[in-house]
């Protein structure tokens, strides 16, 4: 590999190559711990391009690994090889610890507040539904999860339960969806119990570091967002935008992928153009006067 001595040259080259894609060129140098010029330059560039510290660190290490693997630094070549991020070989579904597979394209994915809404959208033909029922009452959670499972029976809709993994196992739901905090809170034996139950597992991610963390458990699919600003929940990171979603989709191409966060009918085409196979919506259905008609329009747009 030819010597690269000036991290500032590396940083300038990366920013010049990718600033138009990510729309940020501010000079925000990171903190460095390595003497390697590619790592240091990439860290500065990723910070200037607007990536948070944990993702800038993940990306700069990947750029360093890519340069070592290929034998040359290429400012144009945004890292998108799983091995450069320390991930195991793809496809993840071939791993011994992989969760059961789900369809590569989950289609329109409706995130819904209760069992009644789940049944309503399942009967409207929405192919994938998620029950996101927020309650600290364990009995109420059980009732709602069982109601949702019954509500999709005979419709063909795939039902994922958000967070409540014990109830999901008991009710024999199709799958489970976990956020990063939920995943981190599981003891190894609890994660194994979920795997042994046969539930499909989806995991929320909000950038490179969280995608790498999710990949460690080989889930059935990844949700990526928030793509656009959303008022439905407090987000730890800024909206990712479609440019970042596109590079995430290329890196994690071994997984079924769901774009989520602020997506509506107007934004749907540009989200699908990133390469994700599915799009999750909340307000684009539950806030509509005629949710069934809204679902039909969104599904037609996805088919187009």
Automatic annotation (TrEMBL):
Pfam family, one: TMP-TENI
Keywords: Thiamine biosynthesis, Transferase
Record EC number: 2.5.1.3
GO molecular function: thiamine-phosphate diphosphorylase activity
Residue span, Thiamine phosphate synthase/TenI domain: 116-285
Associated pathway: Cofactor biosynthesis; thiamine diphosphate biosynthesis
Origin superkingdom: Bacteria
Keyword Membrane found: no
Protein name from the UniProt record: Thiamine-phosphate pyrophosphorylase
Gene3D superfamilies: Aldolase class I
UniProt xrefs under InterPro entries: Aldolase_TIM, ThiamineP_synth_sf, ThiamineP_synth_TenI
């Amino acid at each position: 590999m030819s010597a690269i001595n000036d991290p500032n040259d590396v940083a300038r080259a990366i920013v010049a190559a990718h600033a138009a894609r990510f729309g940020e060129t501010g000079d925000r140098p990171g903190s460095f711990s390595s003497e390697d010029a590619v790592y240091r330059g990439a860290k500065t560039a990723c910070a200037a391009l607007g990536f948070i510290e944990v993702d800038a660190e993940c990306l700069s290490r990947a750029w360093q690994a890519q340069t070592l693997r290929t034998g040359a630094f290429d400012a144009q070549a945004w890292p998108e090889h799983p091995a450069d991020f320390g991930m195991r070989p793809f496809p993840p579904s071939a791993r011994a610890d992989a969760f059961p597979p789900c369809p590569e394209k989950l289609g329109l994915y409706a995130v819904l507040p209760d069992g009644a809404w789940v049944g309503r959208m399942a009967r409207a033909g929405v192919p994938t539904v998620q029950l996101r029922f927020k309650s600290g009452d364990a009995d109420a959670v059980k009732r709602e999860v069982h109601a949702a499972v019954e509500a999709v029976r005979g419709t063909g809709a795939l039902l994922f339960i958000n967070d409540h993994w014990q109830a999901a196992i008991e009710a024999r739901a199709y799958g489970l969806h976990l956020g990063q905090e939920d995943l981190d809170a599981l003891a190894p034996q609890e994660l194994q119990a979920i795997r042994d139950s046969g539930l499909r597992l989806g995991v929320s991610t909000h950038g490179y570091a969280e995608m790498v963390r999710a990949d460690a458990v080989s889930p059935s699919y990844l949700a990526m967002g928030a793509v656009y600003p959303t008022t439905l929940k407090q987000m730890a990171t800024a909206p990712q935008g479609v440019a970042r979603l596109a590079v995430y989709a290329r890196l994690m191409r071994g997984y079924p992928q769901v774009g989520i966060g602020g997506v509506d009918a107007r934004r749907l085409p540009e989200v699908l153009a990133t390469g994700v196979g599915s799009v999750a919506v909340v307000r684009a259905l539950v806030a509509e006067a005629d949710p069934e008609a809204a679902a039909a329009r969104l599904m037609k747009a996805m088919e187009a």
